[in-house]
Specification:
The chain is of the alpha/beta class. The protein contains eight helices and nine strands. It binds adenosine-5'-diphosphate (2 copies). The site of one adenosine-5'-diphosphate (ADP) has 11 residues, from β2 and α1. It is found in: Cell membrane.
Amino acid sequence: APAVRLTGLEKRYGSTVAVAGVDLEIATGEVLALLGPNGAGKSTTIDMMLGLIAPDAGQARLFGRSPREAVVAGQVGAMLQTGALRDGLTVGETVAEIAALHRRPGRVPEVLAEAGLTELAGRRCAKLSGGEKQRVRFAIALISRPELIVLDEPTAGMDVEARREFWAAMRAYSDTGRTVVFATHYLEEAQSFADRVVLLRQGRVVADGTVAQIRAAA
Ligand code: ADP
Ligand code: ADP
């Protein structure tokens, strides 16, 4: 089974059609950008892909399973825009708390290293920059050593240097053969980091291909 298969996915909010029939198959090992302007349906698509909201029609399958089954099995890591970090905890304590929930305490030093946070392990979350907080969320997403990682605008609020560090960490992870899906509204970010770009507009896939093909369509 492919890492991700979305068939006829639809979601409406009242009279707003957030996702208007998305069909998409993502192979294992692909790094795919969901590109589109604000309101295009990226977050709603991702939330349905993760089983966080139910589609009105269609379905999402991950590795041939329902999203919930894949999440429970630890095959999927998610980094969403929400997800508050507790100010009073250190980076290490924050990651350790979630690792304990996953019964993977041994992963703490590894994911701190994978997210470039080893030197910040003792710092309180209250003292982190926005980009550093995003890297903590990234570390948390890696705890189960997921085969698929799904990121919704992971570099929102980061400056250029923080973006560079974030993508270096991401690249190191994806180079181990993992599948990555990330939402962005930056063409440059899609161009630099994705093998394949899916352009969403008004809840529909309007282009799907390499960055050159997307540029022609955008
Ligand atoms: P994107 O992530 O591309 O910015 P979204 O998936 O967040 O797009 O939103 C798609 C459309 O659905 C937008 O018009 C947005 O306002 C609407 N929408 C998203 N979530 C909700 C919600 N919970 N209630 C009402 N409308 C929503
Ligand atoms: P994004 O563009 O990344 O989707 P938003 O700021 O549009 O970010 O959405 C943030 C949150 O608010 C999401 O949980 C989304 O479902 C919800 N949301 C978005 N649009 C609306 C809306 N029109 N009414 C209610 N909730 C919304």
